[in-house]
């Protein structure tokens, strides 16, 4: 369980059953997802602000995004992609 997740500690016998569904547990799950979606929205806004800062500092945001994508890849995948790009460029006379 992640540190920011809450654990449902209500005893099973006090859980409200509605149509065979543990309503309290369901509500807890939905509320946790809603909180995480709010956090994700806030983080997306923060990332957008950072890209705006980079752009105002004279950096090319598109290139930064490409670098971020490459940093997530395994070194062998990066090398393979760069090799293919080089082959395609030479084939097109670039």
From TrEMBL:
Annotated GapR-like DNA-binding domain residues: 22-93
Pfam families: GapR_DNA-bd (PF10073)
Ranges annotated as spanning the membrane: none
Coiled-coil ranges from the UniProt annotation: 26-53
Domain of life where this protein originates: Bacteria
InterPro entries for the chain: GapR-like (IPR018753), GapR-like_DNA-bd (IPR046367)
The keyword Coiled coil is assigned to this record: yes
GO MF annotations, alphabetized: DNA binding
Keywords attached to this entry: Coiled coil
Region span, Disordered: 1-21
NCBIfam families named among the record's database cross-references: PRK13694.1
Family that this chain belongs to: Belongs to the UPF0335 family.
Record's protein name: UPF0335 protein AD934_02905
Organism: Gluconobacter oxydans
């Amino acid at each position: 369980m992640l540190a920011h997740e809450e654990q449902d500690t209500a005893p099973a016998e006090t859980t409200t059953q509605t149509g065979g569904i543990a309503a309290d547990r369901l509500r807890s799950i939905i509320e946790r997802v809603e909180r995480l979606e709010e956090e994700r929205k806030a983080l997306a806004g923060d990332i957008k602000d950072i890209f705006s800062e980079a752009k105002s500092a004279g950096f090319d945001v598109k290139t930064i995004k490409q670098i971020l994508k490459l940093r997530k890849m395994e070194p062998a995948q990066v090398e393979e992609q760069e090799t293919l790009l080089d082959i395609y460029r030479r084939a097109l006379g670039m």
